[in-house]
Amino acid sequence: MTEQLARLNRLPLRDDLRGLTPYGAPQLDVPILLNVNENTHGLPKSVREAIAISVERAVAGLNRYPDREFTELRDRLAAYLGHGLTSENIWAGNGSNEVLQQILQAFGGPGRTAMSFPPTYSMYPLLASGTGTRYVTGRRSDDFGLTAESAAEQVRAEAPNIVFLCTPNNPTGTALSLDVVEAVYEAGAASEAIVIVDEAYGEFFHAGTPSALELLPGRERLIVSRTMSKAFALAGARIGYMAAAPEVTDALRLVRLPYHLSAITQATANAALEHADALLANVEDIKVQRDRIVSELQDLGLKPAPSDANFVFFGGMEDPRAVWEGLLEAGVLVRDVGIPGHLRVTAGTEPETSAFLARLRELLAAGIR
Ligand SMILES: *Cc1c(COP(=O)(O)O)cnc(C)c1O
Q1: Which residue of 99, 122, 123 sits with most ligand 1 atoms within 8 Å of its CB, as the best mutation to test the pocket?
Q2: Any idea where the Aminotransferase class I/classII large domain is (predicted)?
Q3: Which tens digits make up the pLDDT trace of 181-191?
Q4: CA-nearest residue, atom 3 of ligand 1
């Protein structure tokens, strides 16, 4: 046992938190960071300036509490998402992780169950344990796919209160077809399951891949979660949001902390949304690099999963740890997500992506794979 864990265990900690480790990817100081799916492009100068002006204005009113209902932000998010949504359908938090936590606080908790289909986002079990929600896992096929039939059958068998579907899925990058969402929603009717579709990477879908936002009308247990951390290059600002039936937002009002979205956060998000076009132009650039990674890895004899996200999950290696280390020696940090034979790499800028591919080519030529 580490000294840290021993110290922790001397505290009167909740039994269900004993032995847990906090979420956290290694944060190493290297030149090319392709490990946590951040937007590598940064904010365009015009957007930085607009945010600074908007925040400056908010600073003048910091003696007052912020708009508790973040009305302007909800209006802007509804307009951005389209699909006939209005501010009544929108809720936001300090990152989509906070919104997910609020959903678990409102609909999960002791005696209730949340379900997901690993490999998927590693925060789901942590959010469940933090809220005292039992966490169960379903199965995917050997190639990490999930069919409507299989997902629905498993949901029927578990009768969970909450189901997480992540699309494009992290860490595999692959999108779910909407028939899976529909089938899970129907299968969850018996247990009145809240179905959360986590579209954190929704803006990176290939053209023509539909969003689960299409399915919202008439489905009051469906929630589509989004974030400004990835496509909008605002991971540091902490802004996530969801779209759902108005009664779902009312449920989240019961558990949110008062004034949870600071005036600074609201000002930042509003300014960024006003410049969505400039930010989404970078998304197109990242998608080009993403598709390039998939095709070049294929050419190198590796096995990249199809990706609709800003990252690529790839297998076909015997010793991914050696590949990870070889990349790091060249200043390129990728993610070992703990799945045998696989690594995950974020699509970077053109030069970053080139550096990653060049180093990988070198390693393979040296017999490291
Ligand atoms: C990055 C990510 C998020 C976003 O989290 P924020 O709290 O909004 O930064 C949510 N879900 C998944 C699957 C992610 O990969």
Answers
A1: 123
A2: 32-359
A3: 999 999 999 99
A4: 200
